[in-house]
Known about the structure:
- This protein is α/β, with parallel strands linked by helices.
- It has helices at 5-8, 16-43, 54-66, 77-86, 103-112, 130-139, 151-166; strands at 46-50, 70-74, 91-94, 121-125, 143-146.
- The chain contains seven helices and five strands; from the N terminus they run H-H-E-H-E-H-E-H-E-H-E-H.
- Helix 3 crosses helix 7 and helix 4 runs parallel beside helix 5.
- It starts with a helix and ends with a helix.
- Mean pLDDT is 83; it is low at 1-14, 18-27 and 29-41.
Amino acid sequence: xxYSATSICRFKVETSDRRKWLLxxxxxNAVEAKQANxxxxxxxxxxxxxxxxxxxQDLVKFNLQAEGYDVxxxxxxxxxxxxxxxxxxxxxxLDLMLPDLDGIxxxxxxxxxxxxxxxxxxxxxxxxxMQSRVLGIEAGADDYMSKPFSPKELSMRxxxxxxQQAR
Length: 167
């Protein structure tokens, strides 16, 4: 349920002191309603998880769904590229080691596509060297995490990226 500042701010003015208090309360409630609506939009965001390891996909899906995200999954680069356009994800979590094409190439393809170029990508991979991090960022990734990873940290990064995207 969405709240609007106007529905929260209807009141009858009785005295000037009462009006000041009600205006302050109205402003506080409007800010809270705006924050709740923004949070609700973030939590209903769709995340595409691309990893050829089903256990990793299930772990990520379980934790993101617990946070309220809609999660779609791809096991291959081909599926990832197709779902990045068709599934209209708000964020893509991408592994670098896929069976049919490496994640760097997938990231470049997604970022070159007019439809998907603005979709943020978080790389989640076993490649932890500085060189692979640089390659990921140069390919267009918005963030990079190494495996093994903390599901809580992943959730926090997802939330941060989506909040930045919403601005």
